[in-house]
Amino acid sequence: MNSSANQGERLLPKHLAIIMDGNGRWAKKRFMPRSMGHKAGAAKFKAIARYCSKIGIPYLTVYAFSTENWKRPTEEVGALMGLFKQYLKDALEDLLNDDIKIRFLGDTSVFSSDLQELIAETIQIGEKRTGMVLNLAMNYGSRAEITRAAKSLAEQVQHGILQPQDITEKLLSEHMYTYGQPDPDLIIRPSGECRLSNFLLWQSAYAEYIFIDVLWPDFTTKHLEDCLHEFTMRNRRFGGV
């Protein structure tokens, strides 16, 4: 995707990534428990995901739960796990007509057995779909992802499958969770924070970033459209001129 797209054709990112941030602050501003902020954020996520599918974005990745989020209070983590379960149950029921293929980025083996069963069922059903690919980054951290890829390649060298000189950027990319997908063109972070927080560090080498001072539960399709419009105005040279 580049600025040479046909005139009149809408320039959309092939891969949009969103760091869903600000749920806790949204709840605090309303004197509500943080769990209510996460519930509002989950509802917003469903609406934005459906909208992205509707307008024709091929890949959407959302940062749902990081490897660092386990440090949060046990009650809050439990509430988040409950929301994940409910979302996946909904995905198996009311998203059947959305033609959205759900994938998971991160180490999901640490989740409860019932959540892992829902994840496996969601993946299985999604394999038949041909619409937008929705990546849920759950128990995801980019440094952990890169370390996992490096370990895998090191084991192949150790067993004589590879030589060190065989390791290339392309080969390392093929060991990331997003293998087979284009790198994100645009990363949006609501909430006013201006950092990546260990999200898609390898894949975002040439991504455009937009930081917007709106808490995630207040993020609307209008905010998204404004970000997409700004994306069309960026001159993406990829190191060239």
What does this structure look like?
The chain is α/β, with parallel strands linked by helices and 241 residues long. 41% of the residues lie in helices and 15% in strands. It is built from 7 helices and 6 strands. The protein has helices at 23-29, 34-55, 74-93, 113-126, 142-158, 169-173, 221-233, and strands at residues 15-19, 59-66, 101-105, 133-140, 186-190, 208-212. Strands 3-4-2-1-5-6 form a 6-stranded parallel β-sheet, with helices on both faces. Strand 3, helix 4 (113-126) and strand 4 (133-140) form a beta-alpha-beta unit. The longest helix has 22 residues, at 34-55. The radius of gyration is 19 Å and the shape is globular. 32% of the residues are buried.
Q: N-to-C SSE series? A: EHHEHEHEHHEEH
Strand residue percentage: 5-15%
Count of individual helical segments: 7
Low-confidence stretches: 1-8
Task: Calculate the terminal CA-CA distance, rounded to whole Å.
Answer: 16 Å
Shape: globular
SS-based class: alpha/beta
| Rg, Cα atoms, Å | 19 Å
Q: Major sheet: size, sense and barrel closure?
A: 6 strands, parallel
Strand order of the largest sheet: 3-4-2-1-5-6
Measured as a percent range, the helix fraction is 40-55%
Tell how many strands the DSSP assignment holds. Answer: 6
Instruction: Calculate the mean pLDDT score and round it.
Output: 90
